[in-house]
Amino acid sequence: MRRHPLRLSLVLLAVLIIAGRNTWAEIGRPIALPDFHRQSLLNGMEIFAFPSNQERVPFQLLVVNGAAFDPIGKWGVTYLTTRLMVEAGKDRAGQPLLAGLKSLGSELTYRVDWDGIWFQGTAPANRLTETLNILGQMLVQPEFDEEAILQLREQVAAELEKKAGEPQFATYERFLGELFNGNPYGHLVRGNPTTLRNIQLGDVRLQYRKLFIPNQAHLAFFHTGDREAAFNALTRRWGNWVKGNPLPFAFRKAEPAGETQVVLLDRPLEESVARWGVLSLARGDKNSYALEILEQYLTLSLPAWAGQVTGATQVRASASVETRIMPGCFQMNLQAPVAQVPAYVKKFNETLKEIQDGQINKERFEEAKRLAYAELRSSLENQDGLLRQLLETSLYNVGVNYILNYGVRIDRFTPELFQAATKEHFSGNKLVIVVAGPAESLQTQLSGFGRVRLLN
Question: In this structure, are 106 and 64 located in the same domain?
């Protein structure tokens, strides 16, 4: 699952603990989803339709291919291709398709991930079919212009060059590269200035043909009125999308670090930014539930860490786990005064060792289970979240039962199972630590965790 970025721990805890307590009685029961209709076009595109009585309805389209398929040396081509499809598309009169959506009162956003490409929006219920058909024109009949590609790639490259000086961005980019080390997850979805400037018109057209095929697409929406009429209207546009052969998802496996990796980005900062973590697991792995409980357990531990490190109970830090088609990452993110960074890494190691030794705070553990369940449950309470969770079951090939039985599986984790799963995962999984801050203050302190590589 994807988590929020850096956050103030006490605010997070207050919100999630309330949610967790309200859902504790339900955690051991299967989750019930609203009724929906599932149907496929002849070209293999899958459609999920949920009835609604709202005046405005959401929709989401997922293409089960993503930036993991970017060729070496041309990272960012999937992002450029997707952005051009949306922003450069025109109708028969030469008017931008985005303007057509706006005239209908509809909205559209997009996001490229490593595993999939997402299109998400809302529309007036009585203009949903027209909205989806405009989206269909963007995907089925895209327009790629060389001048537009050159302008966009320079714009994105300039944005990345500007962000390179930001500690949060710099540590994130370096952390991915160090952790995944040759695996496609190790590069940014938008690539970098060098790889972007290698991308030409032919690369964009080829990437479109490889990734954007209907038998790798899943559309989900809420609708009012007659479902069959809406389906027939969509068939006329989306049915012209030509079926293709899916690319095999076969990539070099990321291997755990053999020893703790410490990278120090020398920056003249009063507050350091630090990331540390390990490879996680694939979505649906039996031990992935333990990592989701661990995420919440460590989040609940942050005030105690802050009390021992600084005497306060607040810290700008977060724990997060990402489970994907291949193993993602489990990471801690911290922004703190320079002198405190090594102490927080040490508290992480100590807490992890306590869990592996069976010294588990039972109350915190049960609360962590509640919070893990509450996070998924709350995402299903709004229509956008429901559509996304449903489509993710297709993306990660885990089936709808992943949602239905999530609470049951979380509830089955005992402290002993949690201890065993944590020990199994972290015993051969060494930390990758990336810190941005002044070398003169941090290099010696960080050397206690491993050999420090100093980068300017």
Answer: yes
Do 104 and 127 form a contact (C-beta atoms < 8 A)?
Answer: yes
Cα distance between residue 138 and residue 135, in whole Å: 5
| Burial of 451 (C-beta count, 10 Å sphere; 0-12/13-18/19+) | exposed
Burial class (CB in 10 A: 0-12, 13-18, 19+), 150: middle
Structure tokens at 429: 């999984």
Domain of 329: which CATH number? 3.30.830.10
pLDDT tens-digit series, residues 375-417: 999 999 999 999 999 999 999 999 999 999 999 999 999 999 9
Could you tell me the pTM of the whole model?
Answer: 0.92
* Domain, as residue range, for 81: 37-238
Residue 232 and residue 320 in one domain: no
User: Quick check: is 251 in a domain?
Assistant: no
- Mean per-residue pLDDT over the chain, rounded: 93
User: Average pLDDT of 302-312?
Assistant: 96
Domain count, the chain: 2
